[in-house]
Amino acid sequence: MAHDDARVPYDVAVERAVDVGLRRACYGALAGGASAFIFLRGPRARVAALAFGVGVGVGSAYEDAQRAFANVE
């Protein structure tokens, strides 16, 4: 991993942001779906838990992307 204070080119930052965004959205969907399947019965509650998991993953990816684009050349 690169240091936080190191400058990175724009294309590398975009590639990292897309990669991390997709990965964390999928991980959030899997975690939300698994917990919904185990703990919840109603279909609306399961969809809400799944959406919450995706939202957490995307929010985490957005925060990471903001940090990555702060160091763009």
From TrEMBL:
Classification via Pfam families: DUF543
One CC-aspect GO term: MICOS complex
UniProt keyword Transmembrane present: yes
Presence of keyword Membrane: yes
Bilayer topology term: Single-pass membrane protein
Subcellular location: Mitochondrion inner membrane
InterPro entries: Mic10
Top-rank taxon, per record: Eukaryota
Keywords: Membrane, Mitochondrion, Mitochondrion inner membrane, Transmembrane, Transmembrane helix
TM helices/strands, residue ranges: none
Role, per record: Component of the MICOS complex, a large protein complex of the mitochondrial inner membrane that plays crucial roles in the maintenance of crista junctions, inner membrane architecture, and formation of contact sites to the outer membrane.
PANTHER family linked: MICOS COMPLEX SUBUNIT MIC10
Family: Belongs to the MICOS complex subunit Mic10 family.
Descriptive protein name: Uncharacterized protein
Organism: Ostreococcus lucimarinus (strain CCE9901)
